[in-house]
Write a structure and sequence with these properties.
The chain is an alpha/beta fold. The chain contains twelve helices and eight strands. Helix content is 44%, strand content 7%. The longest helix has 28 residues.
Length: 365
Protein backbone atom coordinates (compact mmCIF):
# COMPACT_ATOMS: atom_id res chain seq x y z
CA UNK A 1 0.00 0.00 0.00
CA UNK A 2 2.73 2.43 1.03
CA UNK A 3 4.75 1.77 -2.14
CA UNK A 4 1.67 2.29 -4.35
CA UNK A 5 0.81 5.51 -2.55
CA UNK A 6 4.39 6.68 -3.00
CA UNK A 7 4.22 5.97 -6.76
CA UNK A 8 0.87 7.74 -6.99
CA UNK A 9 2.32 10.78 -5.21
CA UNK A 10 5.31 10.75 -7.56
CA UNK A 11 3.00 10.60 -10.59
CA UNK A 12 0.97 13.53 -9.27
CA UNK A 13 4.18 15.48 -8.66
CA UNK A 14 5.42 14.78 -12.20
CA UNK A 15 2.08 15.90 -13.64
CA UNK A 16 2.19 19.10 -11.58
CA UNK A 17 5.75 19.83 -12.79
CA UNK A 18 4.74 19.22 -16.44
CA UNK A 19 1.68 21.44 -16.02
CA UNK A 20 3.88 24.18 -14.55
CA UNK A 21 6.38 23.85 -17.39
CA UNK A 22 3.62 24.05 -20.01
CA UNK A 23 2.23 27.14 -18.26
CA UNK A 24 5.58 28.86 -17.81
CA UNK A 25 7.30 28.01 -21.10
CA UNK A 26 5.44 30.58 -23.24
CA UNK A 27 6.33 33.27 -20.68
CA UNK A 28 10.01 32.41 -20.64
CA UNK A 29 10.41 31.64 -24.33
CA UNK A 30 8.07 34.16 -25.94
CA UNK A 31 10.05 36.55 -28.07
CA UNK A 32 9.64 40.25 -27.35
CA UNK A 33 8.54 42.42 -30.28
CA UNK A 34 9.32 46.12 -30.72
CA UNK A 35 7.76 48.40 -33.32
CA UNK A 36 8.99 51.79 -34.57
CA UNK A 37 7.70 54.02 -37.32
CA UNK A 38 4.64 55.79 -38.67
CA UNK A 39 0.87 55.32 -39.11
CA UNK A 40 1.26 52.03 -40.98
CA UNK A 41 2.36 50.46 -37.69
CA UNK A 42 1.08 52.86 -34.98
CA UNK A 43 -1.17 50.95 -32.57
CA UNK A 44 -2.45 53.96 -30.66
CA UNK A 45 0.36 56.16 -29.29
CA UNK A 46 -1.14 59.23 -30.95
CA UNK A 47 -4.33 58.75 -28.90
CA UNK A 48 -2.36 60.20 -26.00
CA UNK A 49 -1.08 63.25 -27.91
CA UNK A 50 -2.52 66.56 -29.07
CA UNK A 51 -2.35 65.90 -32.80
CA UNK A 52 -4.60 65.68 -35.85
CA UNK A 53 -2.84 62.43 -36.90
CA UNK A 54 -5.11 60.04 -35.04
CA UNK A 55 -7.46 57.12 -35.64
CA UNK A 56 -9.32 56.88 -32.34
CA UNK A 57 -12.82 57.57 -33.70
CA UNK A 58 -15.27 55.43 -35.71
CA UNK A 59 -15.33 53.96 -38.26
CA UNK A 60 -11.67 53.07 -37.51
CA UNK A 61 -11.57 49.71 -35.74
CA UNK A 62 -14.95 48.60 -37.10
CA UNK A 63 -13.56 45.07 -37.69
CA UNK A 64 -11.14 45.02 -34.74
CA UNK A 65 -12.04 42.27 -32.22
CA UNK A 66 -13.58 44.89 -29.89
CA UNK A 67 -15.22 46.75 -32.84
CA UNK A 68 -13.84 49.96 -31.37
CA UNK A 69 -11.36 52.52 -32.67
CA UNK A 70 -7.99 51.88 -31.02
CA UNK A 71 -5.73 54.34 -32.82
CA UNK A 72 -4.77 51.82 -35.50
CA UNK A 73 -5.11 53.24 -39.02
CA UNK A 74 -7.09 50.21 -40.15
CA UNK A 75 -10.58 48.77 -40.18
CA UNK A 76 -9.15 45.94 -38.05
CA UNK A 77 -5.69 44.53 -37.39
CA UNK A 78 -2.54 46.30 -38.56
CA UNK A 79 0.76 44.74 -39.65
CA UNK A 80 2.30 44.49 -36.13
CA UNK A 81 -0.87 42.79 -34.81
CA UNK A 82 -0.68 40.14 -37.52
CA UNK A 83 3.07 39.58 -36.99
CA UNK A 84 2.35 39.16 -33.26
CA UNK A 85 -0.18 36.44 -34.14
CA UNK A 86 2.39 34.71 -36.36
CA UNK A 87 5.01 34.62 -33.60
CA UNK A 88 2.38 33.37 -31.08
CA UNK A 89 2.50 36.52 -29.02
CA UNK A 90 -0.13 38.97 -27.81
CA UNK A 91 -0.26 42.37 -29.56
CA UNK A 92 2.31 44.89 -28.35
CA UNK A 93 0.79 47.79 -26.45
CA UNK A 94 1.48 51.43 -27.39
CA UNK A 95 4.37 52.70 -25.29
CA UNK A 96 2.26 55.59 -24.00
CA UNK A 97 -0.53 53.27 -22.84
CA UNK A 98 -0.97 53.20 -19.03
CA UNK A 99 -1.58 49.44 -19.40
CA UNK A 100 2.06 48.87 -20.42
CA UNK A 101 3.54 47.90 -17.07
CA UNK A 102 4.64 44.85 -15.10
CA UNK A 103 4.63 41.57 -17.04
CA UNK A 104 3.17 43.32 -20.11
CA UNK A 105 6.64 44.82 -20.65
CA UNK A 106 7.95 41.31 -21.41
CA UNK A 107 5.79 41.22 -24.57
CA UNK A 108 7.59 44.27 -26.00
CA UNK A 109 6.24 47.68 -26.95
CA UNK A 110 5.03 49.73 -29.90
CA UNK A 111 6.71 53.14 -30.15
CA UNK A 112 5.30 54.12 -33.57
CA UNK A 113 3.56 57.43 -34.14
CA UNK A 114 1.43 58.42 -37.14
CA UNK A 115 2.80 61.26 -39.25
CA UNK A 116 6.51 60.89 -38.57
CA UNK A 117 9.32 60.31 -41.01
CA UNK A 118 13.06 59.81 -41.16
CA UNK A 119 13.49 63.59 -41.00
CA UNK A 120 12.46 65.76 -38.08
CA UNK A 121 10.70 68.29 -40.32
CA UNK A 122 8.41 65.62 -41.78
CA UNK A 123 4.86 65.85 -40.46
CA UNK A 124 5.25 69.26 -38.79
CA UNK A 125 1.61 69.97 -39.75
CA UNK A 126 0.55 67.25 -37.27
CA UNK A 127 2.09 69.17 -34.34
CA UNK A 128 2.70 66.79 -31.42
CA UNK A 129 3.96 63.44 -32.75
CA UNK A 130 6.73 61.12 -31.54
CA UNK A 131 9.63 61.66 -33.92
CA UNK A 132 11.96 58.78 -34.58
CA UNK A 133 14.78 59.80 -32.22
CA UNK A 134 12.24 60.33 -29.45
CA UNK A 135 10.93 56.81 -30.18
CA UNK A 136 14.49 55.56 -29.69
CA UNK A 137 14.78 57.52 -26.43
CA UNK A 138 11.57 55.85 -25.27
CA UNK A 139 13.15 52.49 -26.19
CA UNK A 140 16.02 53.30 -23.82
CA UNK A 141 13.51 54.29 -21.15
CA UNK A 142 11.63 51.04 -21.76
CA UNK A 143 14.83 49.04 -21.20
CA UNK A 144 15.37 50.74 -17.85
CA UNK A 145 11.78 49.94 -16.85
CA UNK A 146 12.21 46.32 -17.95
CA UNK A 147 15.51 46.10 -16.07
CA UNK A 148 13.78 47.21 -12.88
CA UNK A 149 11.54 44.13 -13.15
CA UNK A 150 13.84 41.39 -14.47
CA UNK A 151 17.32 42.82 -13.83
CA UNK A 152 19.64 44.66 -16.22
CA UNK A 153 21.30 41.56 -17.71
CA UNK A 154 18.01 39.78 -18.38
CA UNK A 155 16.61 42.96 -19.93
CA UNK A 156 19.61 43.15 -22.28
CA UNK A 157 19.09 39.53 -23.26
CA UNK A 158 15.36 40.07 -23.96
CA UNK A 159 16.17 43.02 -26.25
CA UNK A 160 18.94 41.13 -28.09
CA UNK A 161 16.65 38.17 -28.75
CA UNK A 162 13.68 40.34 -29.74
CA UNK A 163 12.16 40.89 -33.13
CA UNK A 164 12.04 44.53 -34.27
CA UNK A 165 9.96 46.16 -37.02
CA UNK A 166 10.65 49.64 -38.36
CA UNK A 167 8.56 51.39 -41.02
CA UNK A 168 9.71 54.82 -42.19
CA UNK A 169 10.07 56.86 -45.37
CA UNK A 170 6.64 57.26 -46.93
CA UNK A 171 5.81 60.44 -45.02
CA UNK A 172 9.13 62.00 -46.03
CA UNK A 173 7.66 62.10 -49.52
CA UNK A 174 3.88 62.52 -49.17
CA UNK A 175 3.97 64.71 -46.04
CA UNK A 176 7.14 66.62 -46.81
CA UNK A 177 8.77 66.72 -50.26
CA UNK A 178 5.49 66.47 -52.22
CA UNK A 179 3.17 67.94 -49.58
CA UNK A 180 2.85 71.29 -51.37
CA UNK A 181 4.21 72.57 -54.68
CA UNK A 182 7.63 74.14 -54.17
CA UNK A 183 8.05 72.66 -50.69
CA UNK A 184 11.17 73.67 -48.76
CA UNK A 185 12.78 70.26 -49.28
CA UNK A 186 11.98 70.22 -53.01
CA UNK A 187 13.68 73.60 -53.35
CA UNK A 188 16.68 72.32 -51.39
CA UNK A 189 17.09 68.98 -53.23
CA UNK A 190 16.22 67.49 -56.58
CA UNK A 191 14.59 64.07 -56.10
CA UNK A 192 17.69 61.82 -56.52
CA UNK A 193 19.68 63.94 -54.05
CA UNK A 194 16.76 63.97 -51.59
CA UNK A 195 16.56 60.16 -51.72
CA UNK A 196 20.30 59.88 -51.08
CA UNK A 197 19.93 62.27 -48.13
CA UNK A 198 17.02 60.23 -46.70
CA UNK A 199 19.01 56.99 -47.01
CA UNK A 200 22.03 58.54 -45.24
CA UNK A 201 19.78 59.75 -42.40
CA UNK A 202 17.96 56.40 -42.19
CA UNK A 203 21.32 54.65 -41.87
CA UNK A 204 22.00 56.71 -38.70
CA UNK A 205 18.62 55.65 -37.27
CA UNK A 206 19.31 51.97 -37.93
CA UNK A 207 22.78 52.15 -36.42
CA UNK A 208 21.33 53.83 -33.33
CA UNK A 209 18.77 51.02 -33.08
CA UNK A 210 21.62 48.50 -33.29
CA UNK A 211 23.49 50.45 -30.63
CA UNK A 212 20.48 50.06 -28.34
CA UNK A 213 20.68 46.27 -28.64
CA UNK A 214 18.45 45.37 -31.61
CA UNK A 215 19.78 42.31 -33.46
CA UNK A 216 16.88 41.21 -35.72
CA UNK A 217 15.27 44.16 -37.46
CA UNK A 218 12.66 44.01 -40.23
CA UNK A 219 13.01 47.22 -42.27
CA UNK A 220 10.15 47.95 -44.67
CA UNK A 221 10.61 50.08 -47.75
CA UNK A 222 7.97 52.54 -48.89
CA UNK A 223 4.86 51.16 -50.54
CA UNK A 224 3.78 52.23 -54.06
CA UNK A 225 3.05 55.77 -52.87
CA UNK A 226 1.68 56.96 -56.19
CA UNK A 227 -1.04 54.28 -56.18
CA UNK A 228 -2.80 55.08 -52.88
CA UNK A 229 -6.31 56.57 -53.25
CA UNK A 230 -5.17 59.92 -51.79
CA UNK A 231 -2.62 60.40 -54.55
CA UNK A 232 -4.99 59.11 -57.24
CA UNK A 233 -7.53 61.71 -56.11
CA UNK A 234 -4.99 64.54 -56.31
CA UNK A 235 -2.74 63.56 -59.21
CA UNK A 236 -4.34 60.90 -61.43
CA UNK A 237 -6.45 61.58 -64.52
CA UNK A 238 -7.59 58.10 -65.44
CA UNK A 239 -6.78 56.01 -62.37
CA UNK A 240 -3.13 55.50 -63.26
CA UNK A 241 -0.59 55.67 -60.40
CA UNK A 242 1.03 59.09 -59.92
CA UNK A 243 4.30 58.84 -61.85
CA UNK A 244 6.44 61.17 -59.74
CA UNK A 245 5.67 59.41 -56.45
CA UNK A 246 6.23 56.03 -58.08
CA UNK A 247 9.58 57.33 -59.29
CA UNK A 248 10.41 58.34 -55.72
CA UNK A 249 9.57 54.84 -54.43
CA UNK A 250 11.56 53.37 -57.32
CA UNK A 251 14.64 55.34 -56.26
CA UNK A 252 14.25 54.92 -52.50
CA UNK A 253 13.65 51.18 -52.14
CA UNK A 254 16.67 49.83 -54.09
CA UNK A 255 18.98 52.26 -52.28
CA UNK A 256 17.50 51.18 -48.94
CA UNK A 257 18.26 47.54 -49.83
CA UNK A 258 21.85 48.39 -50.76
CA UNK A 259 22.30 50.38 -47.55
CA UNK A 260 20.99 47.43 -45.50
CA UNK A 261 23.32 45.01 -47.27
CA UNK A 262 26.22 47.36 -46.51
CA UNK A 263 25.30 47.57 -42.82
CA UNK A 264 25.01 43.79 -42.50
CA UNK A 265 28.41 43.37 -44.16
CA UNK A 266 29.93 45.93 -41.79
CA UNK A 267 28.35 44.19 -38.76
CA UNK A 268 29.20 40.74 -40.16
CA UNK A 269 25.68 39.56 -39.33
CA UNK A 270 22.20 39.60 -40.87
CA UNK A 271 20.85 42.14 -38.38
CA UNK A 272 18.68 44.05 -40.83
CA UNK A 273 16.12 42.36 -43.08
CA UNK A 274 14.75 44.36 -46.02
CA UNK A 275 11.03 43.93 -46.69
CA UNK A 276 10.06 45.07 -50.20
CA UNK A 277 6.57 46.29 -49.37
CA UNK A 278 6.28 48.09 -52.71
CA UNK A 279 6.39 44.76 -54.57
CA UNK A 280 4.08 43.16 -52.00
CA UNK A 281 1.48 45.90 -52.61
CA UNK A 282 1.92 45.88 -56.39
CA UNK A 283 0.75 42.25 -56.53
CA UNK A 284 -2.78 43.17 -55.45
CA UNK A 285 -2.74 46.70 -56.93
CA UNK A 286 -2.09 45.43 -60.46
CA UNK A 287 -4.40 42.41 -60.18
CA UNK A 288 -6.85 43.00 -57.33
CA UNK A 289 -9.32 40.32 -58.47
CA UNK A 290 -6.67 37.60 -58.12
CA UNK A 291 -6.54 38.41 -54.40
CA UNK A 292 -10.29 38.68 -53.85
CA UNK A 293 -10.55 42.48 -54.08
CA UNK A 294 -13.06 44.33 -56.25
CA UNK A 295 -10.82 47.42 -56.34
CA UNK A 296 -7.34 48.60 -55.45
CA UNK A 297 -8.05 52.20 -56.44
CA UNK A 298 -11.06 53.25 -54.34
CA UNK A 299 -10.70 53.43 -50.55
CA UNK A 300 -13.40 51.79 -48.46
CA UNK A 301 -13.71 54.90 -46.27
CA UNK A 302 -13.38 58.45 -47.56
CA UNK A 303 -14.93 60.96 -49.92
CA UNK A 304 -14.28 62.56 -53.29
CA UNK A 305 -12.62 60.83 -56.25
CA UNK A 306 -11.51 57.30 -55.28
CA UNK A 307 -12.70 58.14 -51.72
CA UNK A 308 -9.23 59.66 -51.54
CA UNK A 309 -9.86 63.15 -50.15
CA UNK A 310 -9.85 64.21 -46.51
CA UNK A 311 -10.12 61.98 -43.47
CA UNK A 312 -12.10 58.81 -42.81
CA UNK A 313 -14.89 59.87 -40.42
CA UNK A 314 -18.47 58.92 -39.51
CA UNK A 315 -19.58 61.29 -42.29
CA UNK A 316 -17.47 59.54 -44.97
CA UNK A 317 -18.61 57.05 -47.58
CA UNK A 318 -18.13 53.61 -46.02
CA UNK A 319 -18.12 50.30 -47.88
CA UNK A 320 -19.99 47.37 -46.36
CA UNK A 321 -17.70 44.67 -47.82
CA UNK A 322 -14.36 45.74 -46.35
CA UNK A 323 -12.62 42.48 -47.21
CA UNK A 324 -13.05 43.36 -50.90
CA UNK A 325 -11.11 46.65 -50.72
CA UNK A 326 -7.31 46.78 -50.85
CA UNK A 327 -7.32 50.21 -49.18
CA UNK A 328 -9.23 51.02 -46.03
CA UNK A 329 -8.76 54.81 -46.10
CA UNK A 330 -6.98 57.22 -48.49
CA UNK A 331 -3.51 56.07 -47.36
CA UNK A 332 -3.70 52.78 -45.45
CA UNK A 333 -4.27 49.16 -46.52
CA UNK A 334 -7.28 47.22 -45.25
CA UNK A 335 -6.87 44.41 -42.72
CA UNK A 336 -7.11 41.87 -45.54
CA UNK A 337 -4.32 43.63 -47.47
CA UNK A 338 -2.22 43.77 -44.29
CA UNK A 339 -2.61 39.99 -43.96
CA UNK A 340 -1.38 39.51 -47.53
CA UNK A 341 1.64 41.70 -46.78
CA UNK A 342 2.48 39.73 -43.62
CA UNK A 343 2.14 36.45 -45.56
CA UNK A 344 4.97 37.68 -47.80
CA UNK A 345 6.99 38.84 -44.79
CA UNK A 346 6.61 35.34 -43.35
CA UNK A 347 7.28 33.19 -46.42
CA UNK A 348 8.22 35.46 -49.33
CA UNK A 349 11.18 34.79 -51.63
CA UNK A 350 14.21 37.10 -51.79
CA UNK A 351 12.23 39.22 -54.26
CA UNK A 352 10.25 40.36 -51.21
CA UNK A 353 12.47 39.59 -48.19
CA UNK A 354 16.24 40.00 -48.28
CA UNK A 355 18.35 38.18 -47.17
CA UNK A 356 15.61 35.95 -45.65
CA UNK A 357 11.96 35.83 -44.66
CA UNK A 358 10.58 35.84 -41.14
CA UNK A 359 9.87 32.09 -41.09
CA UNK A 360 13.58 31.48 -41.76
CA UNK A 361 14.56 33.91 -39.00
CA UNK A 362 12.29 32.15 -36.51
CA UNK A 363 13.73 28.75 -37.50
CA UNK A 364 17.33 30.01 -37.17
CA UNK A 365 16.81 31.75 -33.85
Amino acid sequence: MYKGASMANTSVLVMVVIALLVTLTPLTEARAFFVFGDSLVDSGNNNYLVTSARADSPPYGIDYPTHRATGRFSNGLNIPDIISEKINSEPTLPYLSPQLSGKKLLVGANFASAGIGILNDTGIQFLNIIRIYTQLEYFQQYQRRLGAIVGAQKAKSIVKQALVLITLGGNDFVNNYYLVPNSARSRQFDLPDYVRYLISEYKKVLMRLHGLGARRVLVTGTGPMGCVPAELAMRSRNGECAAELQRAAGLFNPQLLQMIKGLNKKLNADVFIAANTKEMHMNFITDPQAYGFITSKVACCGQGPYNGLGLCTVLSNLCSNRGQYAFWDPFHPSEKANKLIVDQIMTGSTKYMNPMNLSTILALD
